[in-house]
Amino acid sequence: MRRYVLTGTPGAGKTSILRCLAELGHGVVEEAATAVIARAQARGEEEPWTRASFVDEVVELQRERQLEGPVKGAVQVFDRSPICTHALATYLGRPVSRALTAEIERITAGEIYERQVLFVRNLGFCEPTSARRISFQESLVFEKVHEQSYRAFGYELIDIPADDLAHRVAAVSSAISGFTRSTSRTSSTGRRP
């Protein structure tokens, strides 16, 4: 099973890309933070991200979703990973918790996610939602924090530039296909092409 991370700043269009990838037959796993926020807001909690336990709740749901992710096909695409949660903690000015540290150690030791991360670039704007209350300028800062976190943990960022949805989906699909073919050749020959 090959697990790819689709990431980027809030409002960059990841969810739309993910839906298209699902239609193309890829196994997809939705973002945990949005789900944690939606559940809390349904209970009447307006800003759950201000709670000290928020980051750990996101980590727990990410782990559950990764372990129970769809087995459909040879490829899974995840909307964010624990490295994004590290970026979130950094952006919020929170300490990196033991739970987050342990999860990053687990995904690193187990090589859970591919080292090539599909980094969806901002669209030049950021529309607020009930779960996304961030200005465009703040989203650019958050984008930079994400880049720094992934690079610090040794991931390679594959840029998915701003473009229409069809071109972005094609770029992601092409990148995934290219990585899969490259790995297949490596596995059959025992060396990189």
Structural write-up:
Helix 6 links the parallel strand 4 and strand 5 (156-160). This protein has seven helices and five strands, in the order E-H-E-H-H-E-H-H-E-H-E-H. The chain has helices at 14-23, 32-42, 54-67, 82-92, 98-109, 136-152, 165-189, and strands at 2-8, 27-29, 75-79, 116-120, 156-160. The two termini are 21 Å apart. The protein is α/β, with parallel strands linked by helices. The chain has one domain: P-loop containing nucleotide triphosphate hydrolases (Rossmann fold), CATH 3.40.50.300. A five-stranded parallel sheet has the order 2-3-1-4-5, sandwiched between helices.
Briefly characterize the structure.
The protein is α/β, with parallel strands linked by helices and about 190 residues long.
Rg result = 16 Å
| CATH domain topology | Rossmann fold
- Beta percentage is 5-15%
The chain-level structural class is: alpha/beta
Distance between the termini: 21 Å
Average the pLDDT over all residues and give the rounded result.
89
CATH architecture: 3-Layer(aba) Sandwich
Assign an overall shape. Answer: globular
Write the topology of this structure.
Blueprint: E1 2-8, H1 14-23, E2 27-29, H2 32-42, H3 54-67, E3 75-79, H4 82-92, H5 98-109, E4 116-120, H6 136-152, E5 156-160, H7 165-189
Parallel strand pairs: 1-3, 1-4, 2-3, 4-5
Q: Main traits of this protein?
A:
52% helix, 193 residues, Rossmann fold, alpha/beta
